[in-house]
Amino acid sequence: MTTGHVLMGLLAHEDRHGYELKSEHDVRFPGSRPLAFGQVYAALERLSRKGFVDSTEVENVDGPNRTVYSLTAEGRDELLDWLSRTEVPSPFLTNPLAVKTTMALLAADRATATDFMDRQRAAHLQRMRELTKQKLASGASLSDVLAADFALAHLDADVRWLEAALERIVHLEQEVTT
Amino acid sequence: MSSPSLATSLRLAIAGSRSDRMRIALTAIGAFATTVLFCLAASVAFIGEASGPYRFDVLNQPGLRPGVIISMLALTIPTLVFVGQCSRFGAPSRDRRLARLRMAGAQPSEVARIVALETGLASLLGSLAGAGTFFIAKRQFSTEHVATITTQTELGGGGIQIDEVTTTVRLLPTDVTFTAWSIVLLVAVVPLLATMFSSIALRKVIVSPFGVARTQPTAPPTVLPAVLFGAGTLALVGWSTISEALDLHRRALPIVVIVSFCFFIMIVAGLITGGGSIAAAAGHFIAPRTDRPSLLIAGRRLISAPYTSARATTSVLLAVFIGSAVQATREAFLVGTDPTDTFYADTFDLLNVVLIAAIVLSAASLLVTTTEAVVERRRNLAALTAAGTPRSTLARSLLAETLIPLVPSVLLAATAGVLSARGLFGTRVETWDPSTGRSTWLDVHVPLVETATLAVGAIIVCAVVSSVSFGALQRSVDVSELRTAA
Amino acid sequence: MTHPGIASPEQSRTGSMPRESADPSPSGSTVLSVRSAVYSYGSELALEGANVSLGRGEILAITGPSGSGKSTLMLVAAGVLKPTAGQVTYNDRIISNENERQRSRLRRSDFGILFQFGQLVPELTAVENVALPLLLSGVKRAKARAAATAWLDRFDVADLATSRPPEMSGGQSQRVAAARALVTEPTVLFADEPTGALDTVSGELVMSEIVRVAREAGTSIMLITHSAKVAAYGDREIVVRDGRTTESMIDLEATGTNA
Ligand SMILES: Nc1ncnc2c1ncn2[C@@H]1O[C@H](COP(=O)(O)OP(=O)(O)O)[C@@H](O)[C@H]1O
Ligand SMILES: [Mg+2]
Predict the structure, then answer these.
(1) β-strand pairing of C220-224 with C188-192
(2) Interacting residues of A14 by C-beta distance below 8 A, sequence separation 6+
């Protein structure tokens, strides 16, 4: 995925100028880092060089002229091609939580490990409560809900992994003691 | 999976849980009673020139014997219906077993065969026991007694000479001989009929690999049962008119018996098919009106499964119908007879004993269905109890579900029984008074007390049985039903 | 963090008059408390000393692995089961000392219970199912039906009023069941895996409706679930392991998490 593809996606229905593209992106993806203007213009520059977008100068009465971008036929093809390709499931999840939990299990005693995991679970749940509240808030937009869903699903996966890890410790201890 | 061998089918047919065993036992008991009745009817049919005389005068008079045989056969109707229905009491464990068979690749026909085989085997056991008991009893009771009986001799000029003779008599036709083939036939007839009935009853049960579904016609027929019941009753009430119109009194006795028996069967068919309609109608009347949760639940259950409770009480209804007819017939036969002459009274008492047995047996089938209904919805009942529904409310709803359709049906059956017997045997009887030498007309009493006792007794027996199944409810309303996997 | 449309637990707690309670919970006045509860099914020990206190208007999640004793804890707390040892207090009543008759009446009047499935009477229509608890407490038919219809509407299933449970989807029947559990306006709602049989989206819809309605009415919820996602609807979590409860609480400062 590149920023270029995302911008082409935002241009699919409507022509926009650079600033509109940036704010549209930030509203659509509330969970991710806001785009910098430099990033937006650099990406648009690359896209127009490849012929994926066209730019037109628009007269602006009370200010500097603006460049409005529109998606070309080639750009649309590239966009559809990109959307049809699956994402590679990330093989190397270097999640600090997983690393720390594994270290706690290896380097500390059981009590320390379970204590860490219990507190970690509580911290996760606290975050999940906040996300749930955001989702339930009456003004929440679809983008808000989707972003919260995404975060919740990942946090839920963490919690389930923690639970399974705890179960495994118990099983392991039972095996050792019997 | 290849078609299961007979041995496999047999093993599958008899394997099962407590409720399976209960159903098998009830089937066997029903077959036992039916076979004994068939044997009794057969022994009356086998009475010949050389047999007798008997203490029961009806048996001594060839003209009355067809009536006796018909009554005996009529009594087998409730017991046969009972045996046939036993196979429909689908215990949940059997349903699961059958569904697993289908899951393992058995064809629906093979599953049906297993169920039919179970019914056949169970009733064969009952039949063998019944015939065995009958023949042992026949030998045990074949001793002769000294008694005074009346004999009738037809005189030349149309008169009848009645003599009192003291002679040795038998209580019952224990002196008739059964041929070997007739014994085989008597043992085989009930299992064959039961297997046939159970196949018919199971046609409405669909065994899929995922479970057993009972197809329920949503709207039971209302016109057909009413027409059958009404026409049959009216025909028998107006019997004298009909027999005059058709010139029946000049015809041979068998024709008269057959025609009247047809009307009788119409009433029976009306009662069998109408039970569900009465249940549904009562439900439709009560459910939208009541403030009481117990009646609301009962009414709605009657609407959604009108045949479930009706099926269980069909044999009770038939017993009440036949019983009321017997009481009215008894009045017609006893009118004007010497009160010290107990021959007729004894005969009818014997019939009453059989009837009471039939009602009790029928009530046992009710126990099976109500218990099963409770077990089937145990999770729901447990959830209702957890939410604070008093158990007494649930118990009352169970009782209402049995009694609401039963009470009107019993009243109809009893009325039809009395009316048709009175129509058939007349409401006035001509008797000959030996002291005056003249004949007088006497009114036949309406057997109000007897019929009411029978009807109310049947209702009470059903109410008691239904309350017993509340015991199953107490056990079923167990919190373990509320547990969910996680 | 407050959000429009959702009363935070703090708000709803101060909104209702807290009654006197012998044992105030950490989060306001306590409605229900379970103290050192032990319960065994025959020889099978399912609870070995559970402690829970539920605040007024609070949504408390009870989590834990399968077979840890969550459902048993809920049934003990709701007065369905009598604890073998320990005490269950509701307001000022020690309900663990009361007989089944008294507890049954209490469950009918003050509690609502919601299970995973199978609680609706399959032969009754949705509106009759919801009206049932009202009829049980002597409300007349017409009034009970009107109230039931209003509750179906609150759960957005008013169009199903005359449908029967077998004709409904899982999500629809849980909404009807929730309406039935709340129609008596109970003080406490007990919910055992209320969305356990539903798919993600319908489960979320049902959960958010229940939470919304409960927050509006100030109803406390004891929410039994094995899923963290469902537990996140609660204000607080108690974890049950091997029949014992541990409060899942964190000191956010100490753990260095920035929430
Ligand atoms: N009716 C019962 N009879 C025997 N054991 C039971 C019964 N109900 C629950 N248990 C046992 O009690 C323990 C706790 O069960 P439960 O409360 O259902 O746990 P959870 O809801 O957390 O899965 C389990 O070990 C379970 O096997
Ligand atoms: Mg559970």
Answers:
(1) parallel
(2) none
The residue type of B51 is S
Taking the C-alpha atoms of residue A44 and residue A18, their distance in angstroms, rounded to an integer, is 8
Q: Is the pLDDT of residue A124 over 80?
A: yes
- Among C1, C228, C246, whose Cβ lies nearest the Cβ of A128? C228
ipTM of the modeled complex: 0.84
Reduced DSSP (H G I as helix, E B as strand, rest coil) percent helix, strand, coil of chain B, to 5: 70, 10, 20
> Quick check: bond before B339 cis, omega within 30?
no
Confidence of residue B158 (pLDDT cuts 50, 70, 90): low
Nearest CA in chain B to C106: B388
For the record, the structure tokens of B214 come out as 């009972």
Chain A CB contacts of C227 under 8 Å are 156
Evaluate whether C52 touches C62 at the Cβ level (below 8 Å): yes
How much is the pLDDT for B371?
76
Is B484–C71 a contact, with Cβ atoms under 8 angstroms apart?
Answer: yes
Q: What type of residue is B209?
A: P
Q: Is the CB–ligand 1 distance for residue C43 below 6 Å?
A: no
Residue pointed to by tokens 């840890």: C68
Kind plus residue range of the DSSP H or E element containing B169: strand B160-169
B376 close to B92: Cβ distance less than 8 angstroms: yes
Give me the pLDDT at residue B249, please.
66
Look at A72-86, B235-249, B467-481 and tell me which has the smallest mean pLDDT: B467-481
The CATH topology of domain A3-84 is Arc Repressor Mutant, subunit A (1.10.10)
CA B85 to chain centre: 11
Q: Are strands B145-154 and B160-169 parallel, antiparallel or unpaired?
A: antiparallel
Q: Would you list the domain boundaries of chain C?
A: 9-246
Q: What is the CATH number of domain C9-246?
A: 3.40.50.300
- Cα separation, C116 vs B406, in Å, equals 36
Instruction: Give the count of beta carbons closer than 10 Å to the beta carbon of residue C3.
Output: 16
User: According to the model, what pLDDT value does residue C4 have?
Assistant: 40
CB contact at 8 A, C75 and B482: yes
Q: If DSSP states are collapsed to H, E and C, what string results for chain C?
A: CCECCECCHHHHHHHCCCCCCCCCECCECEEEEEEEEEEEECCEEEEEEEEEEEECCCEEEEECCCCCCHHHHHHHHCCCCCCCEEEEEECCEEHHHCCHHHHHHHHHHHEEEECCCCCCCCCCCHHHHHHHHHHHCCCCHHHHHHHHHHHHHHCCCHHHCCCCHHHCCHHHHHHHHHHHHHCCCCCEEEEECCCCCCCHHHHHHHHHHHHHHHHHHCCEEEEECCCHHHHCCCCEEEEEECCEEEEECCCHHHHCCCC
Distant-in-sequence, close-in-space partners of B417: CB < 8 Å, separation ≥ 6: B320, B321, B322, B323, B324, B325, B326, B327, B328, B451
Residue nearest to atom 23 of ligand 1 (CA): C67
Cα distance between residue B224 and residue B14, in whole Å: 38
Neighbours of B192 (CB within 10 A): 14
Three-state DSSP state, B441: strand
**Tokens in use for A82?**
């990109």
Do the beta carbons of residue A133 and residue C3 sit within 8 Å?
yes
- In DSSP terms, which residues pair with C54 in a beta bridge? C32
Among B218, B296, B309, the residue to mutate for chain C (most C Cβ within 10 A): B296
List subunits contacting chain B, requiring 3 or more Cβ pairs under 8 Å: C
Instruction: Give just the sign of the alpha carbon dihedral B9, B11, B15, B20.
Output: positive
Contact C227 A127 (CB under 8 A): no
Q: Name which residue sits closest to atom 13 of ligand 1, judged by CA.
A: C46
Q: Which residues contact C97 (CB under 8 A, 6 or more apart)?
A: none
- Amino acid residing at B307: Y
Distance CA B394, CA B293 (A): 9
3-state secondary structure of B147: strand
| 3-state SS, residue B165 | strand
